[in-house]
Amino acid sequence: MADEFHKPVKLPGRVFEAFHGGQDPAVALRVAHDTAHALISRVRADPDPAVVERLVGYTDEHGVDAIAELWSHASARTLPGALWRIYLVRLLIKQNPEETSYLYQRGADTTPTIDPIVAGAQEPTGPTEILALADQILRGAFQGDFADALDRAAAFCRVEAAGCAALADSVDVVDSDRATELTTRASRFVQTGDELGGAARLWRADSLE
């Protein structure tokens, strides 16, 4: 990982770049695959609500270090890579629900796509609603249709990207640096949304490694 995480975790926007960082040894990648598949299989075989809630809130209590070490270097086309991205989306929302919800609502108001419907946040979307969405998506990865959870996370990323792009256009004249930062963030959200959507398609085809 390009950034080191500590508890309590505060994730910089550039964390998206870490998806494409250096690779771990083959043994570490095998551990990533084994742990991700074992976790999903066990929870889905016995979806104890208490266990699911502990998994959803794991990073709130323990930080992101453990799952980052396990899964962050895995390809987006794998189960550990997909799980890492869902956890990361939740962490980014939890870090700043006020800004995230503002950008999400702005994106929902401007996008011509059905992504706000797919993401499923309650409208109007404020901090409380965006935090609820974060938990719903991650909970769905363990309890519901995993591909649906991936699609919801992907749709969230695209709505957020639309909000970033819309705000960038608005502030460009008065604050070009802020506009550039928002445009870069939008691009990263689009990329992450594409990766999550691709993982959903692979899961449905029983091809997510």
Key terms for this structure?
single chain, 10 helices, globular, DNA-directed RNA polymerase subunit beta, mainly alpha, 209 residues
Question: Would you mind describing this structure in some detail?
Answer:
The chain is mostly helical. The protein has one domain (13-204). The protein contains ten helices and no strands. It has helices at residues 26-45, 49-56, 58-62, 65-71, 79-95, 97-110, 115-119, 127-143, 146-171, 176-204. Helix 2 (49-56) packs across helix 8 (127-143), helix 6 (97-110) packs across helix 8 (127-143) and helix 9 runs antiparallel to helix 10. The longest helix is centred in the C-terminal third of the chain and has 29 residues, at 176-204. It is globular and about 50 Å long. Residues 1-24 have low confidence and may be disordered.
Summarize the structure.
The protein contains ten helices and no strands.
N-to-C SSE string, H for helix and E for strand = HHHHHHHHHH
Secondary-structure-derived class? mainly alpha
**Shape annotation:** globular
Major sheet: none
Give the termini distance in whole angstroms: 21 Å
Number of helices: 10
Report the β-strand fraction as a percent range. Answer: under 5%
Mean pLDDT across all amino acids: 87
Share of residues in helices: over 70%
Number of domains: 1
Count of DSSP strands: 0
Radius of gyration: 17 Å
Q: Which stretches of 5+ consecutive residues score pLDDT under 50?
A: 1-24
Organism: Gryllotalpicola daejeonensis
Protein name: DNA-directed RNA polymerase subunit beta
